[in-house]
Amino acid sequence: MKARVLAVVMAGGAGTRLAPLTDRRPKPAVPYAGVYRMIDFPLSNCAHSGIDDVWVVQQFHPHPLGEHLAGGRPWDLDRTRGGLQVLFPHLGDEESGWHQGNGDAIYRNRSLVRRCDPDVVVVLSADHVYRLDYGVVVDTHLDRGAELTMVTTVLPREEVGRFGNVEVDGEGWVQRFRYKPDDPLGDVVTTEVFVFDADALLAAVEALAGSGDNDGLDDLGDQLIPHFVERGGVWSHRMDGYWRDVGTVASYWCSHLDLLGPDPAFTLDDPRWPILTAAVQRSPARLCGTATVDDALVAPGCTVGGEVVRSVLGPGVVVEEGATVRSSILLDGTVVHAGATVSGAICDAGSRIGAGAAVGRLDAPGADDVVVVGEGVEVAEGSEVPAGARLAPP
């Protein structure tokens, strides 16, 4: 008998590390690679993995994400039974209240999980770029008889402190876990793809919430994951392909550069596993006679008359003749006027860079130098915006 799988996409975080891109939208609705949104990656993985019971837990700025989800249609989740369901904080019963983290969100929605009656609950984050067949992970989880299976990968040691860090024995069983450690156990981290035995998950959230001074569980890594690791029976499913957290300005910028070059680290248009999205139809991009475009992704609706190098342009972006864009990400409708230079920057939707302005570090910008120009911000003609600046929306 096939196991019944429920996927829960955690899309309720405030996304403060991505500000000002998240000042007016939730992190999962932030545009990515011109035509996508961050949440498209877990939802596309669910669709291709054959998981058709998918819940999205939402909390901050709900309208932009709700509009993009379109009832689940782009991922074939607009079904009569099952399909896509969006969960919000609510009032009126013992489970009501603002979610205090991902673990707390599961606790506060435990009666809905119980009513759904899944065999397995797959808990996912909405700010990572990767492809993964969750069905393979679920099969491994069931074959091993694990209470929890966590998908893991290897990162440079200096990055480990941002994630859940695990120590795995020679067979693949997790022995120790530290959440965002100052002193890492090693270079293996969780990808925030967690496959739980449903009964064990429900028992754990109720036991842990009842043992504390409050009714919340905070994030998964605070209490819930350590609880399972201490009990034993946690399996590590190693992921060897591309995976990147894009929840910070630096990682968001770097991940876009990973899409470029003759041999990109991650390819978006794999016909065997396409990234699905709710995209607005636009006309093809226009490259005018004076345009120079090298190593760039240019979305539909763009008009380019200047120089674009190693950059990503979202729908409707305009780069006028005499303007230069290097190592930058320009979101929907950004306009770079004649004579302006944008280098090592992220310009949010509807921003305008005035004629002759200079934004960012012009010579070889790095991740620490990235400028963020907020939604609708206008940079004055001839002005200079230094490396690392953050211009909040008006």
Which superfamily, in CATH terms, is the homologous superfamily of the largest domain?
Spore Coat Polysaccharide Biosynthesis Protein SpsA, Chain A
Round the Cα radius of gyration to an integer and report it: 22 Å
Average pLDDT reading: 92
Q: What is the annotated CATH architecture of the largest domain? A: Alpha-Beta Complex
Classify the secondary structure makeup into a structural class: alpha/beta
The stretches of 5 or more residues where confidence is low (pLDDT under 50) are none
Number of alpha- plus pi-helical segments? 8
Enter the CATH topology name of the largest domain: Spore Coat Polysaccharide Biosynthesis Protein SpsA, Chain A
Percent helix, as a range, is 10-25%
Beta strands, count: 29
Q: Please give the domain count.
A: 2
Task: State the end-to-end distance.
Answer: 56 Å
CATH class wording of the largest domain: Alpha Beta
Described by the principal axes of the CA atoms, the overall outline is elongated
Instruction: Please describe the biggest sheet, giving its number of strands, its sense, and whether it closes into a barrel.
Output: 10 strands, parallel
Strand content: 25-35%
What does this structure look like?
The protein has helices at 40-49, 62-69, 102-108, 110-116, 134-144, 198-211, 220-231, 249-257; strands spanning 5-11, 31-32, 36-37, 53-58, 83-87, 120-125, 128-130, 148-154, 164-168, 174-179, 188-197, 234-238, 243-245, 286-287, 292-298, 303-304, 307-313, 318-319, 324-326, 329-330, 335-336, 341-343, 345-347, 352-353, 358-359, 371-373, 378-379, 384-385, 390-391. The protein is built from eight helices and 29 strands. The longest helix is centred in the middle third of the chain and has 14 residues, at 198-211. Strands 15, 17, 19, 20, 22, 23, 25, 26, 28 and 29 form a ten-stranded parallel beta sheet that branches. A seven-stranded mixed beta sheet has the order 5-4-1-6-11-8-12. The protein is α/β, with parallel strands linked by helices and 394 residues long.
